[in-house]
């Protein structure tokens, strides 16, 4: 557990899940991601959309491997490149910025993660809508950051919002519904 009270290990496992690998498979996947990013940069250029996508995968692998400082540095540079190429409100830029905020959270910088995720959620809501999966995932990440910052009441509001939308759309057995319920149970005790 890091200094914020959020289990960094769970964030690292979530990054593995986003990559579609297990923690055991990460050492095999990382060289492939590095090679893919290098090849795309060489053939398509460092600011090509496909190169940026490969670099995001590499950043996630750093986060999954608990290399929080390296992940933060990598994703910080990538967020700047995405914003320059795609614009600050492009969904892919917001994905990278969300990943960067999660890296801040894993590294114990909950307040920075809260600030960054609040902006990401606001932009996703404006661009994609409040009920879009990316917006809901961003609100869940923001709730985790708020919990890490000791702001359980603020986190509960986001968790209830995600819970309401997801359960009405996907049913009560959806993994996001179960996650929100479990976290809300923890916020009641806080």
Q: In summary, what is this structure?
A:
This protein has 190 residues and is mainly α. The protein contains nine helices and no strands.
Task: Describe this structure as you would to a colleague.
This protein has 190 residues and is mostly helical. The protein has two domains: 1-108, Alpha Horseshoe (Serine Threonine Protein Phosphatase 5, Tetratricopeptide repeat); 114-190, no CATH class. The chain contains nine helices and no strands. It has helices at residues 8-19, 26-44, 49-64, 68-86, 91-106, 110-128, 133-148, 152-170, 175-189. Helix 1 runs antiparallel to helix 5 (91-106). The protein is globular and about 50 Å long. The model is unreliable at 1-5 (pLDDT under 50).
The averaged pLDDT comes out at 88
Radius of gyration: 16 Å
Report the sheet with the most strands, covering strand number, pairing sense and barrel closure.
Answer: none
- Name the CATH class of the largest domain: Mainly Alpha
Strand content: under 5%
Choose one word for the global shape.
globular
- Supply the number of helical segments: 9
Would you identify the CATH H-level superfamily of the largest domain?
Tetratricopeptide repeat domain
